[in-house]
Prior knowledge:
The protein contains ten helices and nine strands. It has 305 residues and is α/β, with parallel strands linked by helices. Helix 5 links the parallel strand 5 (124-129) and strand 6 (155-158). Helix 7 (195-210) packs antiparallel against helix 9 (256-273). Residues 301-305 have low confidence and may be disordered.
Amino acid sequence: MNATRFGHVALIGPPNAGKSTLLNALLGQKLAIVSPKPQTTRNRLAGILNVEDAQIVLLDTPGVHIPRGSRLNSRLVEAAWHALAEAQAIVIVLDAIFYSKKPDMLENDIKLLSRPVERSGLPVIIALNKTDAMPDMPSLLPVMARLGEAWPGAAIVPVSALKKKGLDELTKVMVSHLPEGAAYYPEDQLSTAPMRFLASEIIREKLFLQLSQELPYNTAVAIEHWQETAKGARISAVIYVSRDRHKGMVIGKGGAVLKEVGTKARHDIMELTGAPVHLELFVKVREDWTEDEFFLNELGEEHGS
């Protein structure tokens, strides 16, 4: 490709605003894991978008919130803000339908986001997501007006990541903020993340979708073994839980839950690698791992973050 612009754009915003869905929609391929539960994303993930005359590295980040409780929560917010140091522009992803119903929550999130965004000195683009769920566009006007006051001069682009609407306009605005430069990555490369990380994220997504409301937040996934063979990849992964009682919940009666997670994860990993996959899953207890600084560092190193 003959890219004349290249740069990084950070996608930031509150939990459940649809950042990962937006990343996947822009790439035209599933890269980031998604689930209906907030704070699914734990690590910054870079997706590579190639468009005419430009290559954009999109940095998906954990949801910005006031960190309470565990060390893990604090790390999630830190990962989001650290992405700004690499970026040339920021896309603030916000849930349009949520704020149209609860304008007081818009004030809370503006307060949470404004100072770090202002300190970065980066150009701001606002992607008002989930507009497909709006009863009518005029009901979005008060939200847009308030955002215009909070970030004067920012481009406000209504989008629907789910329906893939408004993405061309959003892409054009992002490209306009990129510096001149040639593409850094091959045109067929989807992400800067290692394949091991992407596989562990797929397994974690299936856990989020399969398990009850709270339990997924107490699970972590680490790839212990990855061997490429003539017949495909042989992968062994460990699912860590923080309590002994959680182990049985992840395994399920007769191993049913673990088998379902493994079957669905193997299918998605095969799509990602384009080759057959043999996947083995194990469950281990690591008490209070969300507070274990050493273990969190190990996970961060494996995930390339």
